[in-house]
Amino acid sequence: MGQEDNVIRDPAALPVNLRYLCARHPSVADICRRIGINRQQFNKYLAGASLPSPRNLARICGFFGLEPNDLYLPRHDFAALTEMRAGSLLSAMAQHANPQSRDPAASVELERYCGVYQTYQYAPYAKSSILVGLCQISRRGEQFLSKYVEVTEDETTTRRLNRPMYGLVTLEGGFLYILDRRAGENPSYSLTVLFPNRGVKVGRVTGMTLSISQHLSGAPYAANIVYEKLAGTTQLLAAARRMRLYDRNTPAVSDEIKHIITNRIREGQHVLSHYFI
Questions:
Q1: Is residue 87, in this structure, part of any structural domain at all?
Q2: Average pLDDT, whole number, for the chain?
Q3: Which among 163, 151, 118 is positioned nearest to 136, based on CA atoms?
Q4: H or E element, residue 246
Q5: For the chain, which residues score pLDDT lower than 70?
Q6: Which domain holds residue 148?
């Protein structure tokens, strides 16, 4: 979470991630020709015998559409990031969020939302159950990324399963948009629209999410959602332990949050709308 300069680089990750990228192209020779890097030198990068110079790193990242620090991510995070960016819908959003066309004021405003949030919503697949998850919003270069994690139980083994989603965050018309993608054999998307927080510090942010429930035969659903920003490592560890499904009457979720996330069609309306405080 935070600026690009704060990212911890793991040199051992670069050759692993570079080989992963090359495996998705016809040949290494073609990559070298198109990037303009000597094949022998590139082989040294693949073998981990040497690291690219800043100039060559910029060439490699420009070819693959990455930020320099992306190549130093742990293997699992890197694979998830590249899968996320490979999605056609997210590619379109990435083009829309081109740094050259973005209002600098929007980036300054988005910086306020960087951090880790405890999330609350009613689960579409468990009657009257509240799903508590975690979401991290961070900046990488000129893009703002999200990582959402929820924990569910396997219906056959009662084993707890981590279900991460990775996505892009943008600010349009005063609203915060988070477009997440879950990779795998059956990839799915989730779009969350949040009202802006006008406080000096971002605390609670509310809105609605539209997603696909694999538990409901892949049916789409919409739900009110609350993002509550955390402060400090102690809160983060406690929040991670809180990730699970809760009964709607649980004291672990405040009555105010329960009220906000209740999904209702109000009198005179024919659509589900967010309860705005």
A1: no
A2: 81
A3: 118
A4: strand 244-247
A5: 1-9, 83-103, 152-163, 183-187, 214-218, 275-277
A6: 104-261
- Give the chain's count of helices (H) and strands (E): 9, 9
Terminal Cα distance for the chain, rounded: 29
- For residue 96, tell me if it sits in a domain: no
User: Distance between CA 171 and CA 144 in Å, rounded?
Assistant: 10
Cβ atoms of 78 and 20 closer than 8 Å: yes
Taking alpha carbons only, the member of 19, 134, 128 closest to residue 79 is 19
Q: Which residues contact 140 (CB under 8 A, 6 or more apart)?
A: 4, 7, 67, 69, 70
What is the model's pLDDT at position 5?
42
Whether the predicted model's global pTM rises above the 0.70 cut: no
Residue for token pair 């509310």: 206
Domain boundary among 73, 90, 123: 73
3 state SS of 37: coil
Q: What is the pLDDT of residue 122?
A: 92
Q: pLDDT at position 151, please? A: 78
Determine, yes or no, domain membership for 268.
Answer: no
CB of 120 closer than 8 Å to CB of 226: yes
Q: Is residue 81 part of a domain?
A: no
CA distances from 96 to 38, 90, 92, 190 (A): 34, 10, 6, 18
Cβ–Cβ under 8 Å, residues 196 and 214 = no
Domain count, the chain: 2
d(CA 17, CA 220): 34
At what angle are helices 13-22 and 75-86 packed, to 10 degrees? 30
Cβ atoms 35, 18 nearer than 8 A: no
